[in-house]
Amino acid sequence: MTTPTSQPARIHIGSAPDSWGVWFPDDPQQVPYQRFLDEVAEAGYEWIELGPYGYLPSDPHVLTEETGRRGLKVSAGTVFTGLHHGPAVWEKTWEHVSSIAELTRAMGAEHLVVIPSFWRDDKTGEVLEESSLTVEQWGHLATQTERLGREVRDRYGLKLVFHPHADTHVDTEENVTRLLDATDPDLVSLCLDTGHYAYCGGDSVKLIETYGERIGYLHLKQVDPAVLAEVHEQGTPFGPAVAQGVMVEPPRGVPELEPVLAAAGRLDIDLFAIVEQDMYPCEPDRPLPIADRTRRYLRSCGV
Question: How do the domains of the chain map onto residue ranges?
């Protein structure tokens, strides 16, 4: 799947169901998976992520046929975990992860994107638990994330890339670096989502330059600073913030993606950079023009 080592390292651009307003395996507000696949190929992308498990066909033979005839390949699967709860949630977590890891491997992908669970409900804003972790919970998160990294590597040949996310316990620069410093680089790499990191006050270029050896994957996304300021002022949960338009297509928001891509390019490694513009819910005719403009913009950035 990766570029042969004899060739120069490069950034592989893709997109994901998220950019088509897909957040759930099945939702009447979302476009059918066939339309997503048709349009992501039409917009000029070669790589996709699996998105929420069950949205795309979970039978690898069916999915291989569907992607292959459109010239698409899979870069990663995605799982949500609550590993800060410790060993008590391991069996339930592994049951969830193993099916997705199996499909991810079957599709020839090498990465598993791991997103921590939300501390408040993504739709209602209901507070589910404290927004900050205790010292004990941080220990559980680090230990169990390493365990997950080891298991998916040994059983499925996958690389775990941890995705900091708004409204989770791993969000700000302080929390992201705390997790990185507490985990084994051989087991845990980072999926840097430029939009989520900016949403939580982080500087993506600085993070790449400081922790370059931990960057294993990118999600490309921008936030609207004006909407973000209102979101923070009002304490709006992430889901409603997205509905208000906090995430925008480049180059209309922050961070600037050209410096981010330049910094990533200096790492001199093969790297996936997947466009993920949160747009749930959205009108079915909205994603394709945005995806097309975004792909053309990224080409102007040299990728």
Answer: 11-300
